[in-house]
Structure formats: structure tokens, C-alpha cells
Amino acid sequence: MFVNKDMVAHDVTEETHKAWASGPMQTGATWKIIPTSDADYYCSIHAVMKGKIVLAR
Question: Could you give the C-alpha distances from 6 to 2, 16, 25, in angstroms and in order?
Fold first, then answer.
């Protein structure tokens, strides 16, 4: 689950294939995804903000 605790909007976008994206999330908004594989993601609003989902093995 992603929670926007910042004062500005953010989103979550899968980086490689753009397979999923949250859309803009205002302050306090949440977005949930159940990943089926590891994934790199970023904020398309602030492209320097990046992260990675790593599934437990």
C-alpha cells in the first residue's frame, strides 16, 4: 500500500512496461496493489523519485 504523506500530489507508475499506475494521489490518499513480480516504479510527476518492489522469496 502506498500512502502519500507529502504536502504535494504524487503517483506510482511501473517503470519498465507502464503495466500499472496509481494516478495522482493528493495528500493523505492511499493506493494499493498486489504485485505478482518484482517491479521498479517512479513518480511520473517527480521523475527523480524512484523505488523498487521486491517480493519475498
Answer: 12, 25, 10
Task: Read off the pTM.
Answer: 0.90
At 51 the three-state DSSP class reads strand
Q: What is the pLDDT of residues 4-28, one digit of tens each?
A: 999 999 999 999 999 999 999 999 9
Grid cell of 30 as nine digits: 492511499
- Compute the distance between CA of residue 42 and CA of residue 47 in angstroms, rounded to an integer: 6
- Please name each of the domains of the chain with its CATH number: 1-57 (2.60.40.420)
